[in-house]
Amino acid sequence: MTEQTQMETINLSTDVLVVGAGMTGAKAATEIAASGYKVVLIDGGAAAGMGVADVDGEEQAALDALMETVNGSEMIEMLPGTRMDGAAGVPGDFRVWLSGNDDIVEKSVGAIVVASELVSSPMNDAYGLTLSETVLSQSQLEAALKTDPAAFSGKSVAFLMGLAQDGNPLVLERVLKSVLAMENMADTSAYVLAGDLKVAEDGLERLYLECRDKGAMYIKLTGMPQVAQEGAALSITYEDPVLQRNVELAPDIVVVEEAIGADEVNAALADMLKIDVGPMGFLQTDNVHRYPVSTNREGIFVVGGSRRVKKRYGALMDAENAALRVRGLLGDGTISVPVDKAVIDTGKCTFCLTCYRCCPHGAIYWEAENKPVISKVACQGCGICASECPMDAIQIGEFNDAAMIETVSRSAAEKSGDAPTIVAFCCQNSGLEAAKMAESFGMPLPEGLKTVTVPCAGKVDVDYVMRALAEGADGVVIMACHNGNCKSEKGSLYAGWRAANAQNMLEAIGVEKERICFATTASNMGADFSSIVMAMEAQLKAK
């Protein structure tokens, strides 16, 4: 009979902080409030955010409607001109310090949603141009189209895009909306000189065709054109791939594309919230376990422009996803967790801070008595802290040391005829699934293969590896996730370091280090799993 896991109930704060009062942040606030949670909404010191050409007023109307809902909700506390100066705590019990109007206030919240907006910067320097009355950035053009569209009547306007940077659907959308606005004017001509036109987003191909049908001319270039700027006079010379000769265009106005990136406020927010920063300063790494709105810390979510370049509908979908995740975490204000999910023996603990430094999920903090505490809500059970602890003072639920040693010893002692025994420590998120796939599809596997499940490769202790060899295993394989796709971010790195350490120990006592193999795989790579363990078997048979 399976022993029932003892559970404990933890009370959670159900208030939520949303950082970023743009359209995405406002949408997140209204969705979360609709779930019955009180929301504190601040602008967070972020930039106003980047829009698109809004000649018909649809964008502004959508934002106005959202803000009307925000201002009319008793569940949303709007704090304009306020930023976050600090944060501490764990999911369900975050403490944040907010400053604004010369005051600093402390709030207790159960979850935090970061909704900083995208920002744009003109790329005129990349084209050798200086912004002027006839050389405009995309943002300057959009502003002019809102305030004085008649100024472009009768003009020829050339757009330069996808040449100083890779093509981008959001950049293209801004250009096409501006082009369409101009083609609807009398005697106005629009030229789009571009590299790749990426229309693989909803509505972009239709917009592209509509602009073309109204007279816009698209010129695909394979290289940067020569752009001359002498006062107000402009000329663009490019090699026409059809005519196979140089063509010169003399537009009245040139519009240069803009780079779209993350707000600089993200760096400060990441530091305060202890969340990982991904490419280009966005608050999400390229990790399959982080999509769509997760971070490395439970209870902290990132949406829209805070996590990557997204069109408006995608950012609003993020806001809805974040509301679902908040509801899944906070529920009715209580959560049940296993009592033994992560346990610290404070009698063994020497307060060396190793666990605090290595926890990828910010789950460990210190009490006033200088005792470490693991939040059972924040802990994701990877076991990195347990295997890094020099005093073995931390135990992880069903993967505690006693249970692991028993499993390892039993697996190593089981013999399958004359076949070499291979103990494979398999991360349950990758290697274990790959092993199941290999078995299900009838791929070749060693007769003496024994798999040992671990919550993360970061839980594989050197003691487990050496115990397997001491108890009769001929070889050991540690199957980890690929770097960058480890659910615990750094579990694969720790596992690799420990494998190398164990190999050095074998060499020191005169045993071949090749008896220990470290490999990375993914859950859908059954063929790779088969290849790795079969190679290990062949190597052991050759000894």
UniProtKB/TrEMBL annotation:
This is 4Fe-4S ferredoxin-type domain-containing protein. InterPro entries: 4Fe4S_Fe-S-bd, 4Fe4S_Fe_S_CS, FAD/NAD-bd_sf, Fe-S_Ferredoxin, MvhD/FlpD. Pfam families: Fer4 (PF00037), FlpD (PF02662). It comes from Desulfosarcina ovata subsp. ovata. Residues 340-369, 370-399 form the 4Fe-4S ferredoxin-type domain. Keywords: 4Fe-4S, Iron, Iron-sulfur, Metal-binding, Oxidoreductase. PROSITE patterns: 4FE4S_FER_1 (PS00198), 4FE4S_FER_2 (PS51379). One of its GO terms (molecular function) is metal ion binding.
